[in-house]
Specification:
By secondary structure, the protein is an alpha/beta fold. The protein has helices at 7-14, 18-26, 44-54, 87-94, 107-116, 167-178, 198-209, 258-262, 275-281, 295-302, 350-356, 369-378, 382-397, and strands at residues 4-6, 33-34, 40-43, 76-81, 97-104, 122-124, 141-144, 182-188, 212-220, 228-229, 231-239, 247-249, 325-326, 405-407, 420-421. It has an 8-stranded mixed sheet, sandwiched between helices. The chain has a 3-stranded antiparallel sheet with strand order 1-3-2. Helix 1 crosses helix 2 (18-26) and helix 4 (87-94) crosses helix 13.
Length: 422
């Protein structure tokens, strides 16, 4: 790592203003640390790389689907629950992890999995109907993006039984019946504070009661080879006999811009704006949103939302070529979460959506256009899944590199990275 510089020092080194450095940080394009005196400091090499990228200088960090080269069968096996369109499963496959079973309730997503990987054992249906006992001792990893649900707190132990009737209970049941060495859970960042944090504490307590130690962390996709500012909570748990520390992927010191991901304009089906909406969004500059419109247009477009104090930053939003995309949702044209192309006045099309989620171009999605957007918007980015898979392998093999992984602090130790949560 290069020497760390304060805002003003970094600005002087790059001949830019301090406000420019602060703006880049606020947009999630560069990362700040905290000095011993609690000042924000920056890795000058990272800031220089961003400046060069913004100036159009070529970068080796352009968009690519990460994949290891290996021959024969994958070394490790997993079970994937709530598999969706396969973002995590494909990322794991690219990291040399195979799947013995993939379960998905949505019929279109299950059809997508089967259409792209005929050899995968895809079970479409309710996870509650699956008997996992035949896989006991046969899989190394259990992974899944279980939905966030509240629990009953009538009991005092807040363990396995307290989650009954929820999808996390089915996830924990699969753990109990298969006894994998590594568990990977994924959810939205909001789970950290869901129901005052009790939901997450119950999940950790449940896994500890099954003989695992757990830690969780918010991962920022734009620093993990994904051209998208997408934050997700990941929970790792290791069986008691696995001696490795719990490892999370270490953030990279570069980003991948939207231009690098979709600048060649991949063609596919996609939604379209009405003529009225198109006329309004044509007035919004790249990287802009409703505040860039004339005031009378703001009022007519936002209607009652104009008077709200928050929750409007996604409205009339046009993306910027020079930054990662904002978090993709289940539709790029909904009024609250619009994702307009940086240059053309239209929503991102399906293939562009998939690129931003780092699906390869030959990964096809089943169902209507709306169903395809939904599958992609709900997915874990494939490259993020790859990094998660590599962390799982490092824990299984006990050889995590400090340059690629970051160990979770032990319990009761103050974390140095504020994105670690206990």
């Amino acid at each position: 790592m290069d020497k760390l510089f304060t805002v003003s020092e970094a600005a002087n080194q790059l001949s830019v203003s301090s406000d420019t450095i602060r703006r880049w940080e606020k947009k999630g394009l560069i990362r700040s640390r905290r000095s011993e005196r609690n000042h924000r400091v920056f890795d000058l090499g990272e800031v220089r790389r961003l400046q060069a990228k913004l100036q159009g200088v070529g970068s080796e960090d352009s968009h690519k689907v990460l994949k290891d080269e290996y021959e024969g069968e994958p070394k490790y096996k997993a079970i994937g629950l709530f598999a969706g369109a396969g973002g995590t499963a494909l990322g794991f496959e690219n990291a040399s992890i195979g799947h013995s079973l993939l379960n998905e309730f949505d019929r279109n997503a299950a059809a997508t999995l089967r259409a792209n990987r005929s050899g995968w054992n895809v079970v479409h249906g309710d996870v509650a109907d699956i008997d996992f006992r035949p896989y006991e001792g046969e899989v190394d990893i259990l992974e899944g993006g279980f939905p966030c649900q509240a629990f009953s707190y009538a009991g005092k132990k807040l363990g396995f039984g307290d989650t009954r009737g929820t999808l996390f209970y089915e996830f924990a049941r699969a753990v109990e019946e298969t006894s994998p060495r590594v568990i990977v859970g994924e959810n939205v960042r909001g789970l950290v504070n869901h129901d005052g944090g009790r939901t997450l504490r119950t999940m950790v307590s449940t896994l500890e009661g099954l003989g695992y130690r757990a830690a969780y962390k918010v991962l920022r996709s734009q620093y993990l080879d994904v051209p998208q500012k997408r934050e997700r909570l990941f929970m790792f748990a290791l069986r008691e006999d696995v001696k490795s520390p719990i490892l999370f992927p270490k953030e990279r010191d570069y980003i991948v811009s939207l231009r690098e991901a979709i600048g060649d304009r991949p063609e596919s089906e996609g939604q379209r704006y009405s003529e009225n909406k198109k006329a309004i969004l044509e007035q919004v500059p790249p990287g802009g949103y409703w505040r860039d419109l004339p005031e009378d247009t703001q009022r007519s477009y936002l209607k009652a939302s104009y008077f709200l104090t928050g929750g409007k930053t996604g409205m009339a939003r046009r993306l910027s070529w020079d930054e990662p995309s904002l978090t993709l949702t289940c539709s790029p044209s909904q009024k609250q979460t619009e994702r307009c192309h940086p240059e053309e006045t239209r929503p991102l099309n399906v293939r562009e959506y998939a690129r931003i989620q780092t699906f390869p171009d030959d990964w096809n999605f089943s169902g209507s256009v709306g169903a395809q957007y939904k599958q992609i918007g709900n997915a874990v980015p494939v490259n993020l899944g790859y990094h998660i898979g590599k962390a799982a392998i490092a824990m299984l093999e006990g050889n995590g590199s400090e340059t690629e992984f970051e160990a979770a602090p032990v319990e009761n130790e103050t974390p140095q990275n504020p994105l670690f949560v206990f």
